């Protein structure tokens, strides 16, 4: 028999378990299938993102035309979310997810066939990009809204941490895998791998239980789409918690979206090269992975809304400090801190959004959040890019970070409901949410 552990060793193990990533959601078979789908999807998207950009560049030698890929993806996603958010609250959510992911298969087939041609056409790549956003937008709200139906409320923060970890792993593994496949077999090798993932996801989603819409909405005659969206918008506007969550996310993205500045920051401000720019892009992902892997403590928070406000302020101050620094090592360290703060904010925000939104509105509110996640960073990138062109990347990052920190502190200070919001679920639909 082994001797009993010493008190210091037991205390150390207790602290490790307290902060370790909570894997309890993965013991739920249905959630584990859903999580497997998400892991496959983020890796496939990571591979496709690099492959499509590389192929368009190779065909056109134009960065502007590469940027057109992002525009097409955003337009398709917006249209898909408008449809998917409505369907997620009116149709069986498993059916919506399976249909959206099945519709993605022909999109990848189109990219693969085009890559095998003697002269691939950029126009077909743009079409596939729009369709990719459309199909993804249709399925995403149902996927997000289905998580609270599979897990108890106390595990939603842990599920958010697992999702953040999968996303950051996809950001790291996807590009590396794409680079290896392109050098081995060209773009068609990447599209073949993506097709295998696209074929697997609908089959895995079929293993989920049926998730019909809430009984009190299924029994009603479905309202017109515009009225259904009006209900979701009114609820978000009138709910201090949900509205505050979305507002903070907009502030963080509008005032402090650093990605567009990193090439100029690395070359002009830090005197580096493409390798340094690559490290600057990887630094936030590294911080995000550490934060997700040590997020077990978030499930014991008494006031997670207050932590969200703190994380938003830290995000802004870290980026402002990075803009003020002229030492590459300090900029990298600050970007790691910023990535960690952003991931903590995402974990808390996602869980609170699901907990404080009635099930009858989760699809539309989830779609609103996803729309904001696409629009606000794009607008913030334009704002900071213009500021960097007028002054410098360092000055733009410094100013944007300070504005983000101050505005987040101000918005949180005036929203007592958000600061004191607990880990609890609002099961009833407030009558004011649907009033005319």
Structure description:
Helices cover 78% and strands 0% of the residues. It is an all-alpha fold and 436 residues long. α2 (29-60) packs antiparallel against α3 (63-88), α2 (29-60) packs antiparallel against α7 (187-205) and α13 packs antiparallel against α16 (393-414). The longest helix has 32 residues, at 29-60. The chain is globular and about 60 Å long. It starts with 6 loop residues before the first helix and ends in a 17-residue tail after the last helix. 48% of the residues are buried.
Structural class: mainly alpha
Return the string of H and E elements: HHHHHHHHHHHHHHHHH
Q: What proportion of the residues is helical, as a percent range?
A: over 70%
Helix segment tally: 17
Rg measurement, Å: 22 Å
What's the end-to-end separation, in Å?
71 Å
Strand content: under 5%
* Sheet of most strands: none
Write the layout of secondary structure elements.
Elements lengths: L6 H13 L9 H32 L2 H26 L4 H23 L6 H29 L5 H30 L1 H19 L9 H4 L6 H14 L1 H16 L6 H8 L4 H20 L10 H21 L3 H28 L6 H29 L2 H22 L1 H4 L17
């Amino acid at each position: 028999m082994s001797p009993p552990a010493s008190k210091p060793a037991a205390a150390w193990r207790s602290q490790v378990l307290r902060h370790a990533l909570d894997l309890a959601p993965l013991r739920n078979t249905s959630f584990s299938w859903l999580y497997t789908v998400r892991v496959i999807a983020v890796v496939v998207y990571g591979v496709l993102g690099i492959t499509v950009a590389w192929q368009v560049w190779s065909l056109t030698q134009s960065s502007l035309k590469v940027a057109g890929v992002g525009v097409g993806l955003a337009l398709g996603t917006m249209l898909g979310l408008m449809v998917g958010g409505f369907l997620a609250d009116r149709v069986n959510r498993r059916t919506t997810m399976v249909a959206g992911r099945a519709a993605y298969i022909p999109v990848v087939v189109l990219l693969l066939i085009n890559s095998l041609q003697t002269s691939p056409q950029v126009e077909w790549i743009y079409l596939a990009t729009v369709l990719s956003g459309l199909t993804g937008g249709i399925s995403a709200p149902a996927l997000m809204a289905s998580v609270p139906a599979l897990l108890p409320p106390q595990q939603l923060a842990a599920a958010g941490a697992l999702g953040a970890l999968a996303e950051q792993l996809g950001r790291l593994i996807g590009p590396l895998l794409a680079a290896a496949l392109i050098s081995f077999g060209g773009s068609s090798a990447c599209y073949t791998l993506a097709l295998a993932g696209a074929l697997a996801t609908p089959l895995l989603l079929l293993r989920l239980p049926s998730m019909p819409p809430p009984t009190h909405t299924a029994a009603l005659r479905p309202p017109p789409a515009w009225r259904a969206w009006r209900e979701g918008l009114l609820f978000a506007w009138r709910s201090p918690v949900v509205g505050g969550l979305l507002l903070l996310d907009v502030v963080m993205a509008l005032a402090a979206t650093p990605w567009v500045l990193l090439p100029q920051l690395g070359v002009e401000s830090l005197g580096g090269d493409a390798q340094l720019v690559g490290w600057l892009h990887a630094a936030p992902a590294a911080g995000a992975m550490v934060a997700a892997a040590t997020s077990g403590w978030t499930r014991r928070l008494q006031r997670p809304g207050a932590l969200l406000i703190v994380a938003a302020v830290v995000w802004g101050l870290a980026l402002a400090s990075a803009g003020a620094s002229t030492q590459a090592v300090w900029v990298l360290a600050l970007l790691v801190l910023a990535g960690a703060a952003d991931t903590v904010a995402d974990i808390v925000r996602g869980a609170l959004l699901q907990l404080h939104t009635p099930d009858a509105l989760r699809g539309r509110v989830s779609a609103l959040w996803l729309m904001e996640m696409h629009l606000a960073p794009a607008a913030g990138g334009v704002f900071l890019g213009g500021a960097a062109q007028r002054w410098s990347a360092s000055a733009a990052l410094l100013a944007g970070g300070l504005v983000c920190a101050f505005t987040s502190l101000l918005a949180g200070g005036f929203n007592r409901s958000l600061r004191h919001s607990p880990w609890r679920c609002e099961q009833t639909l407030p009558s004011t949410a649907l009033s005319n």
